[in-house]
Write a structure and sequence with these properties.
- Strands 12, 13, 14, 15, 16, 17, 18, 19, 20 and 21 form a 10-stranded mixed sheet that branches.
- Strand 9 (115-127) and strand 10 form a beta hairpin.
- The protein is α+β, with helices and mostly antiparallel strands.
- The protein contains 5 helices and 21 strands.
- It has helices at 82-87, 89-100, 231-239, 277-289, 320-330; strands at residues 2-6, 17-22, 27-31, 35-42, 47-49, 52-64, 77-78, 103-109, 115-127, 130-136, 148-152, 161-168, 173-177, 181-188, 193-194, 199-210, 244-247, 249-257, 264-271, 302-306, 312-317.
């Protein structure tokens, strides 16, 4: 299936700070006050990167005026020769970018610390007091004239999945393994979502059917009460104490079998709230207006139900309630 998303309009006003990454994995930070100008055109095709999909620069530039001070909040770096940047930041950055290394990607952060990942081959040169990073074309990437990105991705199939990390809204999570997954049937929005860094697919419906194995005594998890957890604790995190509840899974981290023995690659999949947008806005507004400091908005992304045979149904999307009712009847 082909997925699309509108291209990002890169502009200086949206950048609070940025990271420059080099070919060996090193990176350094550039403050927004050092960014003079930027303009990029990107290819229509997206490229797989980390847990999602990213744009590749076809042409354009980034103009910097490096300062010697490093007194800005987001001044982090990972460098093989970090003492050199601490001694003379300006000279180090200019020499590293122009004479020593190549830049392979740029992270552009906004004021909320969300960032766009821009991949590419960037040639750097000095122009007086400025440092110019120029994107070099990569003709095999194809067209770069469209207004939207595109990428073709396969559906999620059980036989391809090593495991799934269930990521909850409160930052808890736990892993389920392939042998515990009885069925996966997910449907996706045709449009991708920008998920604070890469582009991700978004679930619009479907379900996962699990039967958790009590013999997995060392299940990877990040539950707050993680002392001597038993099978019922994981089941209750999904289905509540009564065996049926609204769930708050906000991401699925699908871990696929991939090239090479024991190699796993991960895809992050977004899950939206099942409530209508206007209802969500009203609840958030009520929280802001009321003076009792109570929570009125709670993230809800579907329903979970434990069946008599011990299996668990997890449904997603606007029709999650109807889906779980229908599946539960079929499994009686």
């Amino acid at each position: 299936m082909e997925y699309t998303i509108a291209k990002n309009d890169f502009n200086k006003q949206d950048v609070n700070f940025l990271y420059l990454f080099f070919e060996n994995g090193d990176y350094l930070s550039i403050d927004g006050s050092e960014l003079i100008d930027l303009s990029f055109n990107v290819y229509d095709k997206l490229v797989r990167h980390d847990n999602g999909y990213c744009a590749v620069a076809e042409s354009g530039y980034l103009k910097l005026k490096i300062k010697n001070h490093s007194k800005f909040i987001n001044n982090s770096y990972f460098l093989y020769n970090s003492k050199a940047i601490e001694k003379d930041r300006k000279s180090y950055i200019e020499n590293r970018c122009v004479n020593e290394s190549i830049i392979t990607k740029i992270w552009l952060f906004n004021e909320d610390n969300w960032h766009h990942v821009l991949l590419g081959n960037f040639q750097t040169q000095k122009d007086g007091e400025f440092l110019i990073l120029k994107a070099l074309p990569q003709p095999l990437m194809g067209e770069a004239s469209g207004s939207t990105h595109k990428i073709n991705l396969s559906n999620v199939k059980k036989e391809d999945v090593w495991g799934i990390d269930l990521d909850f809204e409160n930052c808890e999570s736990f892993l389920v393994y392939n042998s515990e997954i009885e069925e996966i049937n997910l449907s996706f929005e045709k449009e991708l979502t920008w998920g604070a860094q890469e582009f991700y697919r978004t679930i619009c419906g479907g379900f996962i059917k699990l039967k958790l194995d009590k013999y997995f005594s060392h299940r990877e998890n990040h539950l707050f009460d993680n002392e001597k957890l038993k099978l019922k604790d994981f089941e209750q995190r999904l289905c509540g104490k009564k065996g049926f509840d609204v769930h708050d899974i906000c991401h699925l981290y699908i871990k696929y079998y991939h090239a090479g023995y024991g190699c796993i690659t991960t895809e992050c999949i977004e899950i939206d709230d099942i409530k209508p947008e206007d209802e969500i806005e009203q609840l958030i507004q009520k929280e802001e207006e009321e003076e009792d400091y109570a929570y009125y908005y709670y993230f809800e992304s579907g329903y979970s139900k434990k069946l008599k045979d011990g299996t668990i149904l997890i449904t997603f999307g606007k029709n999650a309630k109807q889906t779980i009712d229908k599946l539960a009847k079929l499994n009686r």
